[in-house]
């Protein structure tokens, strides 16, 4: 008989599924990487500064806050990096390095840690950071969009331009389509050779990342599909629902931000309402609001509804469903 | 796979890796007589048994050594030998508990003889219940509720279906599956005995779909029993005509917790057992397959419950097996019998890994309700603490009852366990699905337990005030 080893007295269950918070967060980060790298490719290495400063500032803010609050170190769970990365992907590719840093610090310190840290924040931290930057640096956030590489071989120049959605708002559909390189405009919109924020331009790569998360069971399709449905319904009148669907951060927002566990409802009914509200608000803001881009505020407004949605849509208790036959 | 739709329960549940491959194909081995057995006076729900032997008495295997009292069951010597001083000893669930220790002697007089009662099939319900009680039988699926009490329906209750639970949904465990393969006739006959006691005309045996061979063996045993004319129900009302008993072997989806009473009743009958109620509320009684075998032995031979089959398995044990051991055998002796445990074994689980308990030490005995020993290696859940709830909703999807473990957990964490009732804390039967899926490794079952005991305590205080 082998000598009795030290036995651990632990409560059951003694098995668990392999998914952990940290694994989920790092998978989300990995799923965002292709879109981020594409942004760097299309907009040039200067956009690495935006990406890097946002991520570094988010991580530093998380580390400092958990030290200051004497909490368990939470940097390793990947959620701070995720916030910084998501924030950077919603920003114009080129801007002074301290702007994304400030936005990321606001996202972590104010929108997340002040609410109690991971799990307790009411608003999506990355989008709260972006809203903070929209209010603080309106010009840098909306005025100077870097023109993309026109194709794989073309030379990259530093001309600034408007995004398709801004052009649509100011000048109409024809002008918007002209922005997106010539005859194959729609494919430019899908593939990602177009002006826009760092991570939104390639719908294909955003969708690829989303597919990975769906396949791993990390996110469900309920929220994204509801967002799309709401957006199509509300922009159908504008004459360019397809342009609306493919541009702006709609895909990034629908798959990576609206699906944030903490700031979305956790039952299906609530998720459908939540997604529809986001979709409709996005369309309304884009068409009637002051900004060409609407998903950020739409998600933040819908975040505020989540506690109520969780109260209204609760799981159905097994024993209360139907009566014995 | 034929495209037949398997029976299953309505919502929730999880699919843990079954881990049954190392013992599923191994026939039941018989443990050689151990050096000693320790028989705690409390191995069941109900009052503890009262010893009727004293120090230095010589007892024979099968002899009654403690009386059951009004609500409990008697205890029998499971090996022959000499009674040691009656004292407190480590107990798998109760830390320390009074136990009768029997030490094996040099010469073994063997088991008492239990001849067959030729009239056993026609024995009355009262007589059958008396034999089951005298045999010390409790629910062998784990709950250890005295079977004679379960078979006596409360005033006004009627039952039309007896379910024999062979689901064995816990990962790793294969003892019920092997028992159905080795003693299918005893399972069927035991079920018929109970059906006759209850006066029900429908018996359903539910197993998970991975036990195809066991299902075939049971169907064959049923055909033989039907041929022997054993399948006539005796309705409770005097003078009512006897009706034939219908037996069905039903395959259910492999999905945890398929073998939980509530879920199995829903899967097999479509009936929904109300919260905190027993299945008899919807006309169903559930008994485990091992209990059915014990009932058969008790009624046919007046043979008491002396052994039980355990699956000894897990990555930490050298020779995983299905082992028939005398009740009261020390876990340490079983470990030796199975080749020892590896040094990296961290947890020894009595029962299955989802609902079983981790044992603090190896010198505790096997008790009647223990259906497996799982030796697990490596770090367990929560060994590095747990994180905040990230509201992912996985526990809401996994809960088979539609409760809200997330809400209960954050209220208990905030020191407000009395606010958890709306989220179903009192209905929870601790299947562990929520903790299993939680990515933050939160011990949701334990939060439920804290909430439950706080709510019960406050209800008790209110009742007194």
Largest interface in this structure: A-B, 45 and 78 residues
Helix content of chain A: 55-70%
**Percent of sequence in beta strands of chain A:** under 5%
What is the multimeric organization of the chains shown?
heterodimer
Overall pLDDT confidence of chain A: 85
Structural class of chain A: mainly alpha
Structure class of chain B:
alpha/beta
Low-pLDDT windows of residues of chain B = none
- Largest beta-sheet characterization of chain B: 6 strands, mixed
**SSE order of chain A:** HHHHHHEEHHHHHHHHH
* N-to-C span of chain A: 55 Å
pLDDT < 50 runs, ≥5 residues of chain A: 152-156, 321-325
Estimated radius of gyration of chain A? 21 Å
What percent of residues of chain B are in strands?
15-25%
Question: Top keywords for this entry?
Answer:
heterodimer, A: 325 residues, mainly alpha, two-stranded antiparallel ribbon, 15 helices, 1% strand, disordered C terminus, B: 465 residues, alpha/beta, six-stranded mixed beta sheet, five-stranded antiparallel beta sheet, 12 helices, 20 strands, 26% helix, globular
Task: Indicate the topology.
The complex is a heterodimer of chains A (325) and B (465).
Chain A: H1 21-43, H2 47-68, H3 79-89, H4 98-112, H5 125-136, H6 138-142, E1 145-146, E2 160-161, H7 164-171, H8 173-179, H9 185-191, H10 203-215, H11 222-235, H12 241-246, H13 250-257, H14 268-288, H15 295-312
Antiparallel strand pairs in A: 1-2
Chain B: E1 28-30, E2 36-40, E3 50-51, E4 58-59, E5 64-67, E6 75-76, E7 81-83, E8 87-91, E9 95-104, H1 125-134, H2 147-151, E10 161-166, H3 175-182, H4 184-198, E11 202-208, H5 212-227, E12 232-233, E13 243-244, E14 246-252, H6 261-269, E15 284-288, H7 289-301, E16 307-313, E17 321-326, H8 331-337, E18 345-350, E19 357-358, E20 372-377, H9 394-398, H10 405-413, H11 433-437, H12 444-464
Parallel strand pairs in B: 1-17, 10-11, 10-15, 11-14, 16-20
Antiparallel strand pairs in B: 2-9, 3-5, 4-7, 5-6, 7-9, 8-9, 12-13, 16-17, 18-19, 18-20
Helix pairs in contact in B: 1-4, 1-7, 3-5, 4-5, 4-7, 10-12
